[in-house]
Structures are given as structure tokens and as C-alpha cells.
Amino acid sequence: MAKVLIPTPLRAHAGGQKEVEVPGATVGEILAALTAQFGDLRQQLFTDEGRLRTFVNVYLNDEDVRYLDRDKTPAAQGDTLSIVPSIAGGVR
Amino acid sequence: MSTVAAPPAALTSEELQRYSRHLILPEVGPEGQLKLKRAKVLLVGTGGLGAPMALYLSAAGVGTLGLVDFDVVDRSNLQRQVIHGTGDIGRKKIDSAAATINEINPNVRVVKHEVALSSENALDILKDYDIVADGTDNFPTRYLVNDACVLLHKPNVYGSIFRFEGQASVFAVEDGPCYRCLYPDPPPPGVVPSCAEGGVLGILPGVIGLIQATEVVKLILGQGEPLKGRLLLYDALAMRFRELKLRKNPECPVCGLHPTVTKLIDYHQFCGVPKQTEVPQVASGDISPVEVKARLDRGDDFQLIDVREVFEHQICNIPQAKLIPLGELPKRLNEIDPAREVVVHCKMGGRSAKAADLLRANGFTRVLNMTGGILAWSDKVDPTVPKY
């Protein structure tokens, strides 16, 4: 079980929720459980080939999973998974 | 360029008085204040993030502030771009900002770069500055600023905002990561909404811009721990700051071990978006608001579909249009007759372009996108339609 933090731009695809508790022992399992629950999120997070999109980062607690073991990274009870997409705003 | 001037040797008596609260701080003192006075900082954009940065950096005594902006102050800017006032509507942002800065602190030398930053001019503009603060609102400029800073070895103080959330970090310092280490590629156009589409809490850029300003001052003074290798996330609704670790990516195409980007590229092509300054081309599949009006007046047979959100429709609408928000479109295709022509519109034309693609992918053969959305309708057809 892990807590997944959904960023504002993706909340519309996750039933408007900002936090979702999902089961899973690894980052990959957690994201699979999340996208099983919210089908619309799958296309937002993954390419058609099933790779995490390059403008979406996933952090297990405060570590980027790209520098851990990616989707095989083990997640412990009570860990927090953050989805952090790039955002563009500033001037206009 | 005119920014090159002899470094000031001392503080004047006016400056000693003006900066007295800095001078008694051991971390600043007269020496630090002189560093600020000698510093040259470039602000890319004088909008939501640039406005608070410019206000506080000028008050703090940064000697040279370069401003890059080619936009004009619009009434809808004033909710957050606090360097501009109601009397500045219609004025060039760069002139309005310079006037406010000079009023706050006439010791600051403002250098105006009234251009769109581009691959052709970026290195030439950036090279004379010590620090670059990125307050851009679009991905092409964001990647351009990042790459130029890496190539020139200039710290890039980054901030970005969306609705109630912000990000900040310091890129391209010593062994620190750059923006491409964080996000190697931009999102495809239209996937990430801009502030104009997604909205932004007016105060949010104030918070993020002042985090950027704080980092600029710390870098100049050489004090404290820079926000390097850390991505600061701010959630205004939860009133919570979080910090994520950022690592320098050894495979980064611009700052990695074997860089493949060694000069500036075409960032509009990289991000897959047309240049901002270009007049949108009328492509096949596009229709102008004027032509839509003519067809409505003639009583032509077509379906006009508004794909904006319900609250936007409440602000203003074209009475003949049927509202189906983009997010609901896939489930409501049965409400549109594929045998008849369809014209889609939104606020500015971006979302309706996606809607048009979606309709075509679902077998609708006669689909047109109204260029410029309801804002263009207000400009070209019916000025009584309020703009938002």
C-alpha cells in the first residue's frame, strides 16, 4: 500500500482526487494499480509502448525512480509516490 | 552591449542609507551590497514571475537588471503581474516595468531587450549577465534558456506555476543538474495547459517569483545553500512545501558526459509548436471566426460545437454553439451528427484543434476548427462578447 500524490494537471483523470491509496510492492505495481483504477491516467503517464513519458517524473518519497530501480524499485508500507509533470506557466 | 560599465567602487551616501537594513546583516554588509550593485541579472519575462522578481531585486539593489519581453500589458495580466498598473494597459511591459523599477530604486540600471528570445539572439543577450532568472510561460523558451545557460555556464534560476502549484530550482551551477536533467523532453503541444487555459491563482507567481529572487540574491552574495539539485514544490491550497532530489543526468544531452546539444537548436521544432510571433497559417481544416459568422448568417447547415468548460461557457458563448467540454467529448460523440459538417471552437483554438483531431479519428470527415477561438470571435465578429 502506498500513497500516490496526483498533481493538479492530472487530477481530472483521477476522479478529482489529490491523493490515492493503492496497493503494490514496487513502483511498477503501484502505477499499474493506479492506472487500473483510473484508466484515463494510463495514457497521460505512459507511452503506447508502456514507457513512462519523459515529461512525467515519478518520485518514491524524495528520490527520482529513474535513479533507483525504475519500475522495479521496491516500495514499503507508508511510502509516498509523487507524480511530477512539467508545467509551463510564468508570464502570461 | 551597453551593460558593460566600470564596476562601482563604493556605495554612495544615499545607498548607505537606502540599504542600511542590509548593511547591518553580517551575511550582506557593505561588501555584499557592493556585490549586489555590481551584479547583472537577466529576467526573461516581466510577467507573473518576472514582476515580483524585478520589484524585489531592484529594491535589494541589484545594479543591472536586464528585461526580456515583447508583450504589451493587458487588463487580464493585472491580477498577478504586480509591476504593472491599470494605467499601464496597452503599454509595452518592458517600459512599464522599467518605470516601476526606476521609481523603486533609481540606482538600478535597466537594460531593455524588447525581443522574443530566440536561438539567434539568446547567447548574445545572455553573455553579459551573471545570472539568468527564467520566468517564461512556454516550453520552447524554457528549453532555450536552459541550453543557453548551460552553454554559457550561467546559473539559471527557474520557476514555473500552474493553478495553485509551483516549482522552483537553480539549474546549471557547477556540478548541478539542468532543466533537461529533470525533463529531457517537452510534452507534446496541448498536453500541458498554459496559464491562459488552466488559470492561475494571482498570488502564486508572487510566492514562486520571490523564491527565485531569494536564490538570485544568495547566488550573488555567495551565502547559504543554493536550491541546487533540489526541486522545490509548492502547493498553495495545502500550504505545503516539498522538496525532491534532482540529480545531474550523466546522459543529459546538454550537460551530460557526452553532450549532443553543443549549440542552440530550433526550440519550436523541438517542442513541436509554431513560433509565437508567427501569424497562424490558415490550414485546411481551419475556418476563421468571420467565415463562421457568415455561414451562421446565411443559415448554412453545420453544427457548431464549443469544447470549453462549463464555467467558461457561463462567462461568454456563441448562442448557436452546443457545449461539449473536451474531456466529455469521447463519451458524447453520439450527440454530433457525422453526416453534417462540424465546426469546433474553444477559447483560443488549442483545445478545439485537439477536439477536431479526435472527431476525425472517430470517423467524422467534415470537421473544421475555428481559429483563435472565442477570443478571436470577440476581436473580429462581436466585441460585446467579453474576453477572459
Number of domains of chain A: 1
How many strands appear in the DSSP assignment of chain B?
13
The ordered string of helix (H) and strand (E) elements of chain A is EEHHEEE
Low-confidence stretches of chain B: 276-282
- Spatial order of the strands in the main sheet of chain A? 2-1-5-3-4
The value of Rg of chain A in angstroms is 13 Å
Shape of chain A: globular
Q: Helix-strand pattern of chain B, N to C?
A: HHHEHEHEHEHEEHHHEEHEHEHEEHEH
Q: Enumerate the spans of chain A where pLDDT stays under 50 for 5 or more consecutive residues.
A: none
Q: In a nutshell, what does this entry contain?
A:
The complex is a heterodimer of chains A (92) and B (388). Chain A has two helices and five strands; from the N terminus they run E-E-H-H-E-E-E.
Description:
The complex is a heterodimer of chains A (92) and B (388). Chain A is α+β, with helices and mostly antiparallel strands. Chain A is 20% helix and 23% strand. A five-stranded mixed beta sheet of chain A has the order 2-1-5-3-4, with helices on one face. In chain A, helix 1 (27-37) packs across helix 2 (39-45). The relative contact order of chain A is 0.25. Chain B is of the alpha/beta class and 388 residues long. Helices cover 33% and strands 16% of the residues of chain B. Chain B has helices at residues 13-18, 20-23, 29-38, 50-60, 93-104, 122-126, 139-152, 179-182, 195-198, 204-221, 267-271, 289-298, 310-315, 350-361, 373-380, and strands spanning 40-44, 64-68, 109-113, 131-134, 156-162, 165-171, 230-235, 240-245, 286-287, 302-306, 322-323, 341-345, 367-370. An eight-stranded mixed beta sheet of chain B has the order 3-2-1-4-5-6-7-8, sandwiched between helices. In chain B, helix 13 (310-315) links the parallel strand 10 (302-306) and strand 11 (322-323). Residues 276-282 of chain B have low confidence and may be disordered. At the A-B interface, strand 4 and strand 5 of A face strand 5, helix 9 and strand 8 of B.
